Amino acid sequence: MVQPAPPSWADIVRDTERRGPEPVRDGHDTAALVAAFPELGAVTTRTPAIDGAGSPVPARLYLPERPVPDVALVWVHGGAYIWGDLDGPESNWVGLALAARGIPVLCLDYRKALNGLHHPALSDDVLAGLTWATAHADSLGVTADRLHLGGASAGANLACGVA
What we know:
Blueprint: H1 9-19, H2 30-36, E1 44-46, E2 59-63, E3 72-76, H3 89-100, E4 105-108, H4 121-135, E5 147-151, H5 154-162
Parallel strand pairs: 3-4, 3-5
Antiparallel strand pairs: 1-2, 2-4
Helix pairs in contact: 4-5
């Protein structure tokens, strides 16, 4: 029996544009995570208002009960530039887990490279988030020179480009 060929990347992108990105949850919502790891319940979250170049930049601030001195992270999730959001495990779980260990985290979302949107729009969103974090470093309990920028997969690429 001949196996069908996997879809091309162009087919995946067209399908995602047509249907919209599917959220990746897998039981990693905050309530499920806190039930499995009660120490995550001590983390406070806030939603800062960050103005981006083309639209507001969705972001979530994770604040620890007892912050580690002099360190905070601005984090960008992955998702092949077309998937992912602040509720996905690569953003929410990372923010909760690090904040539970004392590291304040600002998780950033970005516009997806779909329906004709392309770079540098995604990078502009990350830059707007980092600029906000630098101007509001006290919200993360640090000075601007103690902010770290990182990400996973596509988010890591965006973070590197912005850095």
